[in-house]
Amino acid sequence: MKKRIASGQLFLDHCQGLDIERQRARVQRHRLNALLPDQHTEKEALKKDIFGASCNAWIETPFLFTYGSNIHFGTDCYVNYQCNFIDDGQILIGDRVMFGANVTIATVGHPVHPDYRTFMYAETVTIKDNCWIGAGVVINPGVTIGENCVIGSGSVVTKDIPDNTVAVGNPCRVLRSINEHDYHYYRNNRPSNASELHTVQQVDQQP
């Protein structure tokens, strides 16, 4: 059945230990979300157990997932509160990806016809390096979001998004390319020049 899941074929998930894996994930999920904010050591150990490797992502809780073992983070990622990653299929996340609150990634779907709707299929979701996924975004099965993209809050991403673009809406569509103006101004005409960035970094280093 795992081979069927990996290849995008129809599957059911009550055999070959899949139900046991999900039950174990529920227990891990509960433990993760029950940790106190200052239990950093326990949180890091539990993240490693959940994701199957050292997880270089800061994850705010509560955080929801189906298996956990199918979620793969790059380096320096950030996941805000109340995100829900439905990882029957693979979720491949690049480096320096930021998720706003209440983002849903769904890798699993059902046939449209009601006679077959109890069956499922899974398709990999890929989010490449340096993306910012806004609050409340929903990402559907099979989607690839290219490098450096911004997905506007509340968008529903049903198709691939090309590199270096800002995309918004339901369904999500490319609004524009990321350009030189974005390098010099962080919002409207508010500057993000070297002096401004240096000032922020200096203040951040103060106790």
Short description:
The protein is an alpha/beta fold. 24% of the residues lie in helices and 26% in strands.
Largest sheet: 7 strands, mixed
Number of domains: 1
- Name of the CATH superfamily: Hexapeptide repeat proteins
Shape: globular
User: What is the tally of helical segments?
Assistant: 5
CATH-defined architecture: 3 Solenoid
Q: How much is the average pLDDT?
A: 94
Structural class: alpha/beta
Question: Any idea of the CATH class?
Answer: Mainly Beta
Tally of extended strands?
Answer: 20
Key traits:
207 residues; alpha/beta; UDP N-Acetylglucosamine Acyltransferase, domain 1; 7-stranded mixed sheet; 5-stranded parallel sheet; 20 strands; globular
Description:
The chain has one domain: UDP N-Acetylglucosamine Acyltransferase, domain 1 (3 Solenoid). The protein has helices at residues 2-6, 18-34, 40-51, 180-184, 194-204; strands spanning 57-59, 63-65, 71-72, 77-79, 83-86, 91-93, 98-99, 104-106, 108-109, 121-122, 125-127, 132-133, 138-139, 144-145, 150-151, 156-157, 165-168, 173-177, 185-187, 190-191. Helix 2 (18-34) packs antiparallel against helix 3. The protein is globular. It is of the alpha/beta class. Strand 17 and strand 18 (173-177) form a beta hairpin.
